[in-house]
Amino acid sequence: MEILDSMEAREKRAGRQAQGRTQVGSVEHFFERINVAAIKLSGSLKVGNTIEIENKEYTLRQKVNSMQIDRRDVNEASDGNSVGVKVHVPVRKGSAVYRLD
To answer: Buried b / exposed e across 48-82, counting CB within 10 Å, b at 16+?
Structure first.
């Protein structure tokens, strides 16, 4: 019974963590000199959204202050676009990108 209780608690925590966020893409490349993540979008993203970039080791949470497509500033982008987003810390290729709702 103790194992079931702890398994149920883990499932409930995982469910709460999944609520309120939507996966919108993944990191394709990280440009170290300028701290920019190239993100291939599978959903929509706007300037002002808060994102989480997550991998096995850490989760980065930050607001999208600016976004570029082909070196041009954009306010929003959608599925299929590749965007550049300035990030506070280095991120890894393949990291999942979530939009907090």
So the answer is: eeebbbbeeeeebeeebeebbeeeeebeebeeebe
